[in-house]
Amino acid sequence: MNRLAHPRLAAVEIEGMTRSAFLLRAVLGAGAVYGTAAVTPLVRRAAAQAGGDVDVVNFALTLEYLEADFYRRAREIDLGMELAILAEEFGNHEREHVDGLVATVEELGGRPAERPRFTFPLTSRADFEKLAVTLEDTGVSAYNGAAPAISDKRILAAAGGIVQVEARHAAALRLATGEDPSPDTFEPALERDEVLRAVEPFIAS
Amino acid sequence: MTDPNLPSRRRFLALGGASLAGAVTLGACGGSEDEEGGERGGAESFPTSDPGTRRFGEGDVGIANYALTLEYVEADFYAAVAEADLLSGEALELVRRFGEQEDEHVTALTRLIRDAGGKPADKPRTEFPLERAEAVLELAATVEDLGARAYLGQAAFIKDPEILAAALSIHSVEARHAAALAELTGQKPARSAYAEPATAAEVLESVQPFLRSS
Description:
By secondary structure, chain A is mainly α. Chain A contains 8 helices and 2 strands; from the N terminus they run αβααααβααα.
């Protein structure tokens, strides 16, 4: 067994029975074991096989529920001034993403995915620092994987506007916590058979 | 321009382009996917290309050459910053690193254009006003912000999924650079929940002052 790349991701719990919740669990599992670079090909494959833009947007919505909830929980922790300001701003952005994605699913004639219940390993500032960076990096990887499968160009453009903001969050949190804001020349996509197998349950036959 | 007072649903849809600034609903455009490649009329239409990239070539190659030109400008900018020797410490370290990443974007885009059967654009000649450390970092933040908005402005026009994936993987790196430099210069790393795209015309006009004509 590999050492976990992101042990905290493995400790995030998602209680939900929707397809998106299952996929999100697979995403966090892959990120925990292989790193967030494994998330892009996983989501890319799942999104390419999804039942159209509604499914893809619903997955993005579920991811945004997770991030929004994370920042809401972070309010209970003493983060210090700089991080608290970032967390508040970024949490507001994630909530706006939730609202925009809900409205988009509705306008596509779909039913917005239900909000799962989340549990985060989050009791200290150190927990926040690690998990916030990892979740935002995961968000970037997930959107980069999902975007090519979106057929409506307006939704693709809007998703691009979201992923840019997720990348900005990731970089800002990295810089604020003493990590390299831009660790890779290209947002990496790690293709591994194990990762791709993890997504098989989400692929319609 | 995005109106911050619009409800977020509107803003979400308004992002794609100026033609979406009205109360366009996705439902109104249902079933339009089959008309791929065809310009649609009416307020609901989403443009299928950006005429500003045509001078760099047709289709995806034109977009990639436009991106390559911007990467050349960014790489040159960082090289000039290094030569000007105005920065130190964390700022110097970041700028060095970002410069290396832009160099690698140049290499990757050049290869991608050749692989697609195109001819890579010529390297433009540049000049930058570099006098004070603080102004240099602010200019860096502006240049990266423009780069991120430029990639975002083209995402919906790229046809080849592999080229789109490559562009996305550069786009978010430019966004990381922009955010880090914004934070370093006391600006907000993410000004709003949805990033704004820029057209090729807007971007090229903004970089014009840094291009030498001869």
